[in-house]
Write a structure and sequence with these properties.
Blueprint: E1 3-8, E2 21-26, E3 29-33, E4 38-43, E5 46-58, E6 64-66, H1 72-80, H2 83-89, E7 90-100, E8 103-108, E9 117-121, E10 124-128, H3 145-153, E11 169-171, E12 176-181, E13 184-189, H4 202-219, E14 225-228, H5 233-246, E15 251-259, H6 269-282, E16 285-292, H7 298-309, H8 316-331, E17 337-339, H9 344-349, H10 363-375, H11 379-386, H12 394-401, H13 415-427, H14 446-467, H15 473-481, H16 492-500, E18 504-506, H17 512-519, H18 536-544, H19 569-576, H20 579-588, H21 592-595, H22 603-614, H23 622-636
Parallel strand pairs: 14-15, 14-17, 15-16, 17-18
Antiparallel strand pairs: 1-3, 1-10, 2-3, 4-5, 5-6, 5-7, 7-8, 8-12, 9-10, 9-11, 12-13
């Protein structure tokens, strides 16, 4: 889907509108789109449009009536309802808009799952569905060092939601509506109120199971359904729901076999074996796509680079998403719905559910260590931190002590600043422990760290820091996730790569009803030091409401690091794969020096990291992670540079 809206009489040269036609044309305002954007003319000079994937319309009681973006019902709802309300009523991943004469109002779904980029100047403004449609793609761009600082230092490898890598080029944020007209663009935020933690019991467990099944139902297809299968709880739970709802004959799965280097062989054999057992249990077909980067790989990244550059993506996970999408597109019979289990970790357990907080041969203890990590960002510890009673907490002492020489901040004196520290530790730091200092990040200068913190805290955390309470903490986390990790290069690329191959991707854990329900789920539901497992409601539903082979979820989780903590995917890519000489060739030009401002980025450190890599040295830890991020960003490139 491509969409562009331009206003003003002094517009700069715009990139070609290949495949787009005019939906509306007035003096000073032009709306262009590809045929995936469905429009309805409401009256003379007034047009409503819907693009993307609408799956339902929410009723007042929380029920969901299936529909789709091309339906007259969805377009009439957009035309007759204030646009912010339409975004709350429709379910899915979409963009909606109303053109009224020479003014256009545009917004994405309530979570901002589809991006809207905009650029403006003296007497003109342009909004588009990707960066390649904006003037910035023509070159001469000035780079935004603070947005790039986030991409280089926080997992996700992409600027946060309202930012891009370019000065003067922004994105419409979560819950925002853009108004274009008269050569200007104005963005306003829709009011949002967090839910407080509820008193959940057995009735709510059944409610969760009903919501999960319905989230899958409204996104599924009677023509067929495909699951990106990893063998973990999230993707296999979707597999179980699909089989229950549509039958095994309408379900298939695909998994990637990871071979990054000759020296390590297949690095995810554990999850392939479990996925095969799951597929056999349910009687569904399982395909295996090859993530084989021993002899090839750079051509994959080069092929995806135009797509990634147009959205600011850069990650190896994104490349794997491209391989899966290509496989499904080549093997589909058409009209299949595609599913993935992403964001389940975050929405259930704040991302701490990968069994990696503390390595131990006993898997149950590793799971409990994940619960310790999520406890430190939960309401109980948050209250201790605000009351200045956190220092003697044994869980904090244990995990902080394991951080070695890691630097921690002193808690701020006033309450709002202390709340902001917790939120910054969670969303603006590479290491997720409360009070983790940005001084642990060597990529940035002292001035860069200060400027980055000031910019991002003001743009994203200010209101949360002023208003959050222990009771609303989870709701704020899930809201802010949409501006950070969930829009990053390891999640949003699932949608982007699938859409580029003509597939309809679905992430049912992004269902608005599930999100609201889990925003108010208590700490005792597997998020704290209770004895319930991680992802407690999901595992309860699989045990009590959905046919699921619980006995198969035993043994090592997925990768070689489940039995060998010294193993690293990153090391295999950097030093053992076909990407190694490619990355060295890209970094040898040191083009990053022209993009990364020296007052924000420590060029001496970056040059040292690159120099050691070019000399054939292998490093580990933070330096290795910095090297991979720099390699990927440099390989994808930026507008204004090859």
């Amino acid at each position: 889907m491509k969409l562009r809206i331009a206003t003003g009489t002094r517009l700069p040269a715009l990139p070609p509108a290949d495949g787009m036609v005019a939906l509306s044309r007035h003096a000073g305002l032009v709306v262009e789109a590809t045929d995936e954007v469905r429009a309805i003319r409401v009256a003379e000079g007034r047009t409503a449009f819907v693009a993307g994937d609408v799956v339902g319309i929410r009723g007042r009681a929380g029920d969901m009536r299936p529909t789709h973006a091309a339906s007259l019902e969805a377009r009439e709802l957009v035309s007759a309802t204030p646009i912010a309300q339409a975004c709350e009523t429709l379910e899915g991943r979409f963009v909606v808009g109303v053109v009224d004469g020479d003014t256009a109002f545009v917004a994405a779904d309530r979570f901002g799952q589809m991006d809207l980029y905009y650029q403006s100047g003296e007497g003109w403004a342009v909004l588009a569905s990707d960066l390649s449609l904006l003037p910035v793609s023509g070159g001469g761009a000035a780079y935004d060092p603070l947005a790039l600082a986030h991409a280089l230092t926080v997992y996700g490898y992409r600027p946060p939601k309202r930012h891009t890598a370019y000065r003067g080029v922004r994105r419409v944020g979560v819950g925002e509506v853009a108004e274009l007209g008269g050569g200007r663009i104005t963005v306003t935020e829709t009011p949002w109120q967090p839910l407080a933690v509820g008193n959940y019991g057995e009735r709510e467990l059944h409610e969760y199971a009903d919501l999960l099944l319905d989230a899958v139902r409204v996104r599924g297809s009677r023509h067929g359904n495909v699951v990106y299968l990893s063998s973990g709880w999230d993707s296999t739970s979707i597999l179980a729901c699909l089989v229950k709802l549509f039958g095994p004959g309408k379900v298939r799965a695909v998994i990637g076999r990871m071979q990054y280097a000759e020296r390590s062989g297949v690095i995810n054999q554990f999850e392939i074996d479990r996925a095969r057992a799951m597929a056999e249990y349910y009687g569904v077909r399982l395909d295996v796509a090859e993530f084989d980067y021993r002899k090839q790989g750079p051509e994959l990244l080069e092929g995806l680079a135009p797509l990634f550059r147009s959205h600011g993506f850069a990650s190896m996970t994104a490349g794997n998403h491209g391989v899966l999408a290509d496989h499904v597109a080549r093997t589909t019979g058409g009209d299949e719905a595609v599913f993935a289990g992403e964001i389940s970790d975050g929405v259930h357990n704040l991302g701490f559910s990968q069994y990696v907080t503390i390595f131990h041969p006993v898997l149950a203890f590793r799971e409990y260590s994940d619960k310790m990590a999520s406890y430190l960002f939960g309401p109980t510890f948050f209250g201790l931190l605000l009351a200045d009673q956190y220092a003697n907490d044994p869980i904090y002492a244990l995990l902080r002590g394991r951080a070695g020489d890691g630097i921690f901040e002193e808690p701020a004196r006033d309450t709002a600043a202390r709340k902001r520290q917790v939120l910054a530790s969670f969303f603006l730091r590479g290491g997720r422990l409360p009070l983790w200092s940005l001084r642990n990040t060597r990529v940035l200068t002292d001035a860069g760290r200060e400027a980055y913190s000031r910019e991002m805290e003001a743009a994203y955390l200010a209101r949360a820091a002023a208003e959050v309470t222990p009771e609303t903490l989870y709701a704020w986390y899930l809201r802010l996730y949409n501006s950070f990790h969930w829009q990053g290069s390891t999640v949003a690329t699932i949608y982007a790569t699938a859409e580029a191959r003509g597939l309809r991707m679905n992430l049912p854990f992004w269902d608005s009803r599930l999100q609201e329900f889990l925003s108010a789920a208590p700490e005792s539901w597997g998020r704290g030091l209770d004895l319930n497992p991680t992802k407690y409601p999901l595992k309860w539903a699989l045990s009590h409401r959905i046919d699921y082979p619980m006995h198969l979820q035993t043994g090592p989780h997925s990768y070689l690091y489940d039995v060998d903590p010294s193993f690293s995917h990153t090391a295999e890519l950097l030093y053992g794969s076909a990407f190694a000489p490619y990355f060295r060739g890209v970094l040898g030009h040191r083009a990053y020096r022209d993009v990364l401002a020296p007052d924000v980025f420590d060029h001496a450190y970056l040059d040292g990291v690159v120099g050691r890599y070019l000399d054939g040295n292998e490093t580990r830890g933070a330096e290795m992670n910095d090297l991979l991020t720099l390699s990927l960003l440099s390989s994808v490139g930026w507008y204004g540079r090859s």
